[in-house]
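#structure-requests
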Amino acid sequence: MKNWFFLVGLLSFSSQAWDGHVSGKIGSIDVTSGNNYDLRVTLVNGPKLCGNGNTWAYLNNSDSNYQTYVSVLLAAKMAEKNVTIYTSKETKSGNGYCHIGYISMN
């Protein structure tokens, strides 16, 4: 019984670590350079992705596991599969842009 409560507590903590998580099909993928929000993703119908008004989320080339994220997002777009994108608000710009921290293709 104690293990069950520990597991529930752990799952609750992990779901609270993100500013947002939204599921849907990839609407668009934009690419730029120079750690300027290098890869930008929107979902179909433009849902808000991290608890504010931003409808796009990003990755930078310097992010850990960047190539794998890009591969999964492109595959999801081409296959028209749903993804769940978990994001955190970045603080450097003061605009709270949505930084992708975890994705799941359904």
